[in-house]
Specification:
197 residues, Aminopeptidase, eight-stranded mixed sheet, 6 helices, 27% strand, binds coenzyme A
Amino acid sequence: MLKRQKIQQVTRPVTVKTTRASQPLETTSITQQTKKYKIRWMLPRDLASVLEIECQSFEFSWTKEDFADCLRRRNCVGMVATDHDRVVGFMIYELSKRRIELINFGVAPGCRRSGVGTQMTQKLIGKLARPGRTRITFPLRERNLEAQLFFRSLGFRAVSILHKFYENTEEDAYLMQYQVPPRWAKEVRSLTVNSMK
Ligand SMILES: CC(C)(COP(=O)(O)OP(=O)(O)OC[C@H]1O[C@@H](n2cnc3c(N)ncnc32)[C@H](O)[C@@H]1OP(=O)(O)O)[C@@H](O)C(=O)NCCC(=O)NCCS
């Protein structure tokens, strides 16, 4: 299980002390993957399953109230992946004009390495199609190697180190980022301009 920051820390403004240039972006082949799971908005009835996945995934897990507080915030969105109506993954993110902040994300331990996380992240990347919204960011624990490998496989990069980011540990965080490939951003822009003509 992984150590978590509390909800207010996840979204607090961060001071970036060390900057590392983003690596060249890959155009991943995630769009070519088979869509095996159903992805839909999170509903109140999903909360029990989401809480179970949360507790199985993180040492300092969110409570029911943390989820409720977060989802009450403007622009905060909850998404779940289901397999035959069983919730197998959840994701919470916040949409803003220029970027998406990934706030919480977990896949049921028994369903990992079967593409659930990829399919959900692919869906999130799809939200970048809006003109001007070009990146996804979030802090990721330096010891969470599994998630680092996962996000790396999808084209995310660590762009800076957030020193002493967490309250309960000395551990640092990486500021992870996915940036829309320039070619894609150009295509979205031209589609929007053409559709307005
Ligand atoms: C990170 C997480 C969401 C990944 O979800 P997942 O459904 O297992 O991911 P996928 O099956 O789509 O994996 C896609 C690729 O990512 C990489 N990957 C995923 N988990 C990995 C691991 N444990 N070790 C190495 N590579 C891994 C692999 O390249 C994998 O492809 P492959 O299985 O064909 O080798 C899941 O491990 C999880 O819930 N972890 C605990 C919570 C967490 O850390 N959340 C993220 C921080 S907010």
